[in-house]
């Protein structure tokens, strides 16, 4: 069975994973743990633990249990009080860190409960903060970085991050390494801020694939096309470069395009101008409740087809 390692976080990653789990692939997902927003940020500070939010989201996207159990794990307390806005999955992961000793073991235990197909690994066991450096000073924390990305010249962590042995082993064993769609600067790039990841990618034999975002992210990637996303990734990859990109060439209805622009300031990511990178282009989007999403099955099929012919 072919082995895939995928880096990322957020909704885009979860969507891709929900499709990949339908194919005969051995998938390892590596999750950055620098988030400091919402429930994740509160637990991170109060308990002095890595961010658990994206780990929990990915586990649910790869779960193979009944919908009631998934609903329970995703339930977010709405009443005012100490539990307000905390999803059950975050609380369980925080508790399991205490019981099992670290986030990796907590994640493995939760994977068993949810009958996850594949492996989910946090990038590091450490509590880590994302920092953006600009001309006017530094921005501390993922939320602040995301809000000020246009003023940031360099991203780094608040300390050198030690990457788990299993993460590095999975990279070296992989037949394909993927950077998922998602927030480019705060969900995808944080993996490449870990020196051990970059150095391991240098000697990895697997090709590097990027699954492009469908729309821009206001404040982060305004006006970016597919090539712009690739250029940013390549600038952090050192001597390695993205070998192949999966991108959308389907036409989004004008009404939906206009709605995204007028209400959210988002535009469709253009495929024009990609150079020096193999392109796999297809109609890979779907519209769900007026929202543009990756078609999980189509996108996963393109990944599977590529890995089987490479």
Can you offer a commentary on this structure?
This protein is an alpha/beta fold. The chain folds into two domains: 3-32 and 161-309, Rossmann fold, CATH 3.40.50.10680; 37-45 and 52-116, no CATH class. Helices cover 41% and strands 18% of the residues. It contains 13 helices and twelve strands. It has helices at residues 10-20, 38-47, 53-61, 67-74, 88-100, 103-113, 142-147, 165-173, 184-188, 195-203, 226-236, 254-264, 296-309; strands at residues 3-8, 26-31, 119-122, 130-134, 137-140, 152-157, 176-179, 208-211, 244-248, 278-282, 285-288, 291-294. The protein has a seven-stranded parallel sheet with strand order 3-2-1-7-8-9-10, sandwiched between helices. A three-stranded antiparallel sheet has the order 5-4-6. Helix 8 packs parallel to helix 10 (195-203). The model has no long low-confidence stretch (mean pLDDT 93).
Query: How many strands, what sense, and barrel or not for the largest sheet?
Result: 7 strands, parallel
Give the strand line-up of the largest sheet.
3-2-1-7-8-9-10
Low-confidence runs: none
CATH A-level architecture of the largest domain: 3-Layer(aba) Sandwich
Strand content: 15-25%
Q: What is the ordering of alpha helices and beta strands?
A: EHEHHHHHEEEHEHEHHEHEHEEEH
**CATH topology call of the largest domain:** Rossmann fold
CATH superfamily of the largest domain: CofD-like domains
How far apart the termini lie comes to 14 Å
Structural class: alpha/beta
The CATH class of the largest domain is identified as: Alpha Beta
Radius of gyration: 19 Å
**Number of alpha- plus pi-helical segments:** 13
């Amino acid at each position: 069975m072919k082995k895939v390692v995928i880096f990322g976080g957020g909704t885009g990653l979860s969507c891709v994973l929900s499709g990949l789990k339908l194919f005969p692939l051995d998938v390892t997902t590596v999750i950055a743990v620098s988030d400091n927003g919402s429930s994740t940020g509160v637990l991170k500070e109060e308990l002095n633990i890595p961010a658990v939010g994206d780990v929990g989201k990915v586990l649910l996207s790869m779960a193979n249990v009944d919908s009631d159990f998934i609903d329970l794990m995703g339930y977010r307390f709405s009443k005012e009080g100490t539990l307000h806005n905390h999803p059950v999955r975050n609380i369980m992961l925080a508790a399991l860190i205490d019981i099992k000793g670290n986030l990796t073991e907590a994640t493995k235990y939760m994977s068993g409960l949810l009958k996850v197909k594949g492996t989910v690994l946090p990038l590091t066991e450490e509590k880590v903060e994302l920092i953006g450096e600009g001309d006017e000073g530094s921005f501390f924390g993922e939320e602040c970085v995301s809000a000020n990305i246009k003023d940031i010249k360099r991203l780094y962590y608040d300390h050198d991050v030690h990457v788990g042995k299993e993460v590095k082993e999975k990279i070296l064993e992989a037949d394909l390494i993927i950077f998922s769609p998602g927030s480019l600067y705060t969900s995808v790039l944080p993996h490449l801020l870990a020196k051990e990841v970059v150095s391991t990618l240098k000697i990895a034999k697997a090709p590097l694939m990027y699954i492009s975002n469908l729309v821009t992210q206001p404040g982060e990637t305004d006006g970016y096309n597919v090539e712009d996303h690739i250029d940013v990734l390549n600038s952090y990859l050192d001597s390695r470069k993205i070998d192949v990109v999966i991108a959308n060439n389907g036409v989004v209805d004008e009404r939906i395009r206009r709605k995204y622009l007028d209400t959210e300031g988002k535009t469709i990511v253009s495929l024009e101008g990609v150079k020096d990178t193999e392109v796999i282009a297809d109609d890979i989007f779907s519209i769900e409740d007026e929202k543009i999403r990756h078609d999980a099955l189509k996108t996963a099929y393109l990944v599977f087809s590529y890995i089987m012919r490479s």
